[in-house]
Amino acid sequence: MYDLHHLKGNTYYIDGPTNIGLYKLNDTDVCLIDCGTHNEGPIIETVLRRNKLILKYIVLTHSHADHSGACDYLMKVTNCMVIASKIERAFMRDNKLDLGFLYGGYPLDEFDNRLMHIEDNDEIYSLEYLPKDLRSFKLPGHHYGMIGIRTSDGVYFVADTLGSKSLINSQHILLIYDVEGYLSSLDYLKTLNGNIIVPAHSEVTNDIIDLVDFNKNQIYEIMNIIIEYLNKEHTIEDVTAKIFEHYNLRMSYNKYMLITSTIRSYLAYLSNKKILKNYFKDNKLVFITMEAFNDKFWLFPKLGSFVGR
């Protein structure tokens, strides 16, 4: 782990819990694509020094701590430039923003630990400063402004669009902000098949089809669990508890925050697709399948008022 692997031309990666891309700008100067957690900063610095490389840029695919946590350390020891998309730059400037976004309000102190934590940093530059041999492309779904990076060697770094089979089999439900966007990103990845593709949390491959389908099928499985459960009215908290029960997951503050946020995204997607109906009952927002809702109520054709059967 934390070895430098050559992929093609000037493109390399450092293997780890989060795969970190490395592009050589010349014989010594490099650009990293993501940089790992806060604790990994000194490790990445050692890898660079051991290979006699000088860090000039870090391009962040998104602001999550396992991708950006080492930024502060590496900036201080190398004076490198950090680049990110517009929205992700905002998240990097206030470390409470992502926690508040996921939680839906000011976060509890129990959420703010190193697993979720990034240092505030105002010195984040826009994608206009991206080195000329790198190109960014949008990867909606996992986070607001997540991007992928294509190097001039035709290698694609696709961030958190794909989870490995082992990760999905152990965690079952991965963080998703925009379900429709996530599915479209997975479809886009299929068009890249045959190229070298570097997911953040899976093995490097040039045959991505099977893994894309595995990720999509897991999303569909979760949708089916939700739809089956919502043959009766339930709240967001109820649905979250059902997912934890179904997959025998152990509740924690961070899992509650991440999974509840993701469940909201699933419920919004299914509601916007008119598969679910949502409304208020006893001052609670409840969800039910459209089919079950229509069985429960019928529409009076002239007055347009709902009458229970």
The largest sheet has its strands arranged as 1-2-3-4-5-6-7
Please tally the β strands and state the result. Answer: 15
Largest sheet: 7 strands, mixed
Q: Could you state the order of secondary-structure elements as H and E? A: EEEEHEHHEHHEEEEHHEHHHEEHEE
State Rg: 22 Å
What is the fold named in CATH at topology level of the largest domain? Metallo-beta-lactamase, Chain A
Provide the CATH architecture of the largest domain: 4-Layer Sandwich
Average pLDDT level: 92
Task: Tell me the distance between the termini.
Answer: 63 Å
Report the CATH C-level class of the largest domain: Alpha Beta
Low-pLDDT stretches? 299-309
* Percent of residues in beta strands: 15-25%
* Number of H/I helices: 11
Which structural class fits the helix and strand makeup?
A: alpha/beta
Shape verdict: globular
Question: What would you say about this model in short?
Answer:
The protein has about 300 residues and is α/β, with parallel strands linked by helices.
Describe the structure in your own words:
With 309 residues, the protein is of the alpha/beta class. It is 38% helix and 21% strand. The strands form four sheets. Strands 1-2-3-4-5-6-7 form a seven-stranded mixed beta sheet. The chain has a four-stranded mixed beta sheet with strand order 8-9-10-11, with no helix packed on it. Strands 12-13 form a two-stranded antiparallel sheet. α8 crosses α9 and α9 crosses α10. The chain is globular and about 70 Å long. It starts with a strand and ends with a strand. The C terminus is likely disordered.
